[in-house]
Amino acid sequence: MTKSTTDRPLIIALDYPNAAAAWTLLHQLDPRRCRVKIGKELFTREGPALVKQVIAAGFDVFLDLKFHDIPNTVAAAVAAAADLGVWMVNVHASGGPRMLIAARERLATVAQPPLLIAVTVLTSFDQAELAAVGCAGETAARVLHLARLTAAAGLDGVVCSPQEAALIRADSGARLVLVTPGVRPLTAATDDQQRVMTPAAARAAGADYLVIGRPITAAPDPLAALAAIESELN
Ligand SMILES: O=C(O)c1cc(=O)[nH]c(=O)n1[C@@H]1O[C@H](COP(=O)(O)O)[C@@H](O)[C@H]1O
């Protein structure tokens, strides 16, 4: 196993219903200590204006819209994300090689491309749900297959569960950036996540970035919850 030494490994998921709620937390965060993620709910409510404002406040923004469509559409969408100035953007690896390559090639034409990351198997999936959507075989094997597809298409990294981080690291070395949601301190509820690990275990398994939402955002004292996670990692 390779323990990653990425600086600022924490990405806080701003899964809030509106900008005001997100800013309540953002005003208390130090962009030198963490990065943030804007996903479907907040983006759909507040749009690109909020993304630009959060970047202007000094934060690296992971725009998590998990694009999955025909190659031309996804290539145009990641280019639009790049125009916003985001630090990271994601697509679904199951969109296939042509979609992945089209996205990567389009970003190669922009001045400051974000990291382009592909989601393997959502961390909310367990073996039974994967079978329900017609994917036979072990979850880890499918994650590894999609990680290899992503690497072959020349993307920067993958989103996976921390439970698969060591497997992908062993297979791809330092080639892929590993972004892991499904991170839960021992005392936190797992919510709808199925394939989880603690922050320290995720880092020890080789995760570069830990995406953490509700263990911080739904905590009675979000800053105390963040500080506890930081101290677990240091
Ligand atoms: O791409 C993602 O960020 C993502 C992929 C995945 O497989 N699982 C997953 O939970 N996520 C996102 O990571 C965040 C996890 O949030 P919490 O479960 O609250 O920590 C959510 O914003 C999800 O949309």
Automatic annotation (TrEMBL):
Residues 9-229 form the Orotidine 5'-phosphate decarboxylase domain. InterPro entries: Aldolase_TIM, OMPdecase, OMPdecase_AS, OMPdecase_bac, OMPdeCOase_dom, RibuloseP-bd_barrel. NCBIfam families: PRK00230.1, pyrF. One of its GO terms (biological process) is 'de novo' UMP biosynthetic process. This is Orotidine 5'-phosphate decarboxylase. Belongs to the OMP decarboxylase family. Type 1 subfamily. The keyword Lyase applies. It catalyses: orotidine 5'-phosphate + H(+) = UMP + CO2.
